[in-house]
Amino acid sequence: MSWTVDDSGNAVGSGGEVKHGGAVGAEKKGNAIWMDEQVGEGVHCWTLEVLGGNGMWIGVGTEDNFGSGYKLKGLLYGGPGNLSDGGALVSGHWGPKYGQGDKIGMRLEVSGDHTTLSFSKNGSGLGVAFDISGWKGGPLRPVVSLDSPDDSIMISIMQDCGLQAMSSAEGPAPGIAGSWQLDGKDIWQLSIEQSGAEQWRVSATVANNLGCSVTEENGVFSAGPVMSTMMMPPPELQPLETSVTQLLSGITNIARDGEKLIITAGDRSEKFSVASGSTPATKDQVRWMNN
Known about the structure:
- By secondary structure, this protein is mostly beta strands.
- Helices cover 4% and strands 47% of the residues.
- The two termini are 31 Å apart.
């Protein structure tokens, strides 16, 4: 049992550990695939401990779809908490972001042409990420894609804890961090990640990806400049995107009210519920499975 790394030189494997090779720049991805006998029909479980870094991707893929950079195709969870097929976004804000010190449980179940892939974080179930029917390809094995010099992961075999243990908990976790969905007619999602003591990263997606840093001092929240990708929104989304940008830039308070999240920006107040982003992705959403 060992990691097989790609030919980029950006991933280094030793026993159960794989780490980034230290390269910087545009072509810095380092990919690795775990080679053991836990393949094919049945239930296979692993724990992937993040020894360093954050924003990497973990999941499963086949040997035929393994390679350097974006040649790696698979069923992946990572980045800001998204699902990906290796070449494109599958689902945004599916789960929480993870990083150094976190332990990600991964449960793969294969039965004929039906495959499910579930995740947990530090013992708390996140749910089924991929629910694939109608696909019979090569054996799926653990894969990782590392982006930064600090990235390092240790893999170990985990006893099957049952699908129920991987199910997401009812209701939101305590605190303001997480993925949230606006209540009301104009539904959009918000992601809040704690980045330091009394510091958060708040992001949203309408047509563009919007985000800002928010700090709290003496119970008062304040937002930094809102950064945005530069795509021209379609006309029907322009008013909503302007409204979301104004909300983020004017944040004066973020608080929990039971299971709800309340964001205040001056005289404006918006209520959010925990996002339903843990809905599993299906085969139709995974491009390489439909080629």
